[in-house]
Amino acid sequence: MTHSRAVVGTAHASRYLQQLCKHWAHKFETEYDATAARIALPLGEARLVASAEALTVDLAVDDPAKLPDFQAVIVRHLERFAFRETLDFAWT
Fold first, then answer.
1. Is 68 a domain residue?
2. Domains of the chain: total
3. Is residue 27 a part of any domain in this protein?
4. Which residues are within 8 A (CB) of 76 and not within 5 positions of it... i.e. 6 or more apart?
5. What is the tens place of the pLDDT at every residue in 4-45?
6. What is d(CA 29, CA 9) in angstroms, rounded to the nearest whole number?
7. What is the mean pLDDT of residues 64-92?
8. pLDDT at residue 3 above 90?
9. Is 9 helix (H, G, I), strand (E, B) or coil?
10. Residue 52 carries which DSSP code?
């Protein structure tokens, strides 16, 4: 299993976490509340944690070759929800 993490500074972490989960809940298995989430996608599993100052995104994939695509999907969706601010994703 290959893992990747990004800690994204934002005061709206909880809102973005919930929007992402609601967006995918009709299609994928999701579990979430205001501060934590798990989303099972075909590319892998995403876990998110919201704090007052950041959204932490942890991704896990079985195939390391899928990681860049998974990161791009998450970034694209979160940036769409955060159109009023610029989010900085530094994956480690």
1. yes
2. 1
3. yes
4. none
5. 999 999 999 999 999 999 999 999 999 999 999 999 999 999
6. 26
7. 94
8. yes
9. strand
10. S
Asked if 33 and 48 count as a contact pair (C-beta separation under 8 A), the reply is no
The parent domain of residue 7 ranges over 2-81
Given a contact cutoff of 8 angstroms between Cβ atoms, the answer to whether 19 and 81 are in contact is: yes
Distance of CA 15 to the CA centre of its chain: 12
Dihedral of CA 44/80/50/22: which sign?
negative
Q: Within the chain, what is the greatest distance between any pair of CA atoms?
A: 34
What's the CATH code of the domain at 31? Answer: 3.30.310.50
Q: Is residue 21 part of a domain?
A: yes
What six digits make up the tokens of 83?
A: 């159109």
| Model confidence pLDDT, tens digit, residues 52-69 | 999 999 999 999 999 999
Alpha-carbon span 87 to 24, nearest angstrom: 20
pLDDT band with cut points at 50, 70 and 90 for residue 83: confident
Is 86 within a domain? no
